[in-house]
Structures are given as structure tokens and as C-alpha cells.
Specification:
mainly alpha; Fumarate Reductase Cytochrome B subunit; two-stranded antiparallel sheet
């Protein structure tokens, strides 16, 4: 235990690359906005709801693109090793959570795209008013549409749970005195000494 504490003190606080940090926070912001739009769009009048859903779809397509960029970036720029302050089970849990994030970052928008592609009225989706993105090449049908709709909603709740777990873990480590850990992905919160 003393060896782990000493290693944590000697640890140089290796950080993620600037590109990884930018992608992390951009995608995180887009996910939070899209969760809010997805969970609360029905609270608005129909004309505004339609506009919000158009924004929701555009953000979903952007999340797919940025996630693919992030995966490519990760292969080209190895992330820093886990901090010695983390216990073995914490590092294992962090790996699982990161893997699930990547899975959900693709599965949620793809299930939404499948949902709009399998509905009764299939129209292209307008990407931030710039150009159209066509539907997936599937045969529209009630069963597929309901499956994709339920999947999209359940995956959204799974993302929300994962976000709470992720943020909770970061706060826990920060409060436990490992303030340098948050600086790995948020350098402005834990400047180098």
C-alpha cells in the first residue's frame, strides 16, 4: 500500500493529448444536449418539437462522425497509462466504462437512424440545414420501427447511467485527494505543479 502511495506521488500526471481532450469534451457536450432533447422534446409544442428533433438527429449524426474520429485518434495516440493511485478493480472498471461509452456513442445514434429509416414516413434527415442524409437501406416496418425505438430509449438511459458512474468516479477520486486525476482529461481543473 505504501508503494502505491509513493508511486502516486512520483507519477507525473500524464495527460491525454489535446485532440483527445477536445474530442472528449465536444462529444460529452453533444451527448448531454441530445439526452435532454430526447427525454424532454415531448414537453414542447409540435412546431418547436419538430425543430428540436431535427437538431437531435443532426447532433446524432455528428456524434457518429466524431466518435469515429475519436476511435481513429485513439489508435494513433495512445492514452496515458492508468494512474498508480487507482486500485486494480478501479482500473478494470474504468476500462469497461470506456468500452461501453464507445459502444453507446455509436449504438445510440445508429438506433435513432434505424428508427427514422423504418417508420411509416421515411424522409431524408437534414444535417443542420446543410444537406440531406438518407435513410438506412432497410424495409420500413412496424416491428423494426418499434424495436429500434425501444432500443434507442433504453440505450439513452444506459448512457445516462454510464455518465453518472463516470462523473461519480471522477468526483470520488478528486475528493479522495487524487486531484491530479481529473487533470488528465480536464487540464484547466488541475494545472501542473
Amino acid at each position: 500500500m505504501e508503494a502505491a502511495a509513493a508511486a502516486a506521488l512520483d507519477y507525473d500526471g500524464a495527460r491525454y493529448s489535446r485532440g483527445a481532450v477536445w474530442l472528449h469534451w465536444t462529444i460529452a457536450a453533444l451527448i448531454v444536449v441530445n439526452l435532454l432533447l430526447g427525454f424532454f422534446h415531448m414537453d414542447f409544442d409540435k412546431p418547436l418539437r419538430s425543430t428540436l428533433m431535427g437538431l437531435h438527429k443532426s447532433i446524432g449524426f455528428l456524434v457518429i462522425a466524431l466518435t469515429l474520429v475519436r476511435i481513429f485518434w485513439r489508435f494513433r495516440h495512445r492514452p496515458p497509462a492508468f494512474d498508480p493511485a487507482l486500485k486494480r478493480w478501479e482500473s478494470g472498471l474504468a476500462r469497461i466504462v470506456h468500452g461501453l461509452f464507445y459502444l453507446l456513442l455509436l449504438a445510440i445514434p445508429l438506433s435513432g437512424w434505424l428508427m427514422v429509416s423504418s417508420g411509416r414516413k421515411v424522409n431524408p434527415s437534414r444535417f443542420f440545414g446543410l444537406f440531406d442524409i438518407g435513410p438506412l437501406p432497410v424495409t420500413p416496418g412496424r416491428g423494426l420501427h418499434e424495436f429500434s425505438e425501444q432500443s434507442h430509449e433504453l440505450l439513452g438511459y444506459a448512457m445516462l447511467a454510464l455518465l453518472v458512474l463516470h462523473v461519480g468516479g471522477a468526483v470520488k477520486h478528486h475528493l479522495d485527494g487524487h486531484r491530479h486525476l481529473i487533470g488528465r482529461m480536464a487540464p484547466w481543473l488541475a494545472p501542473r505543479r
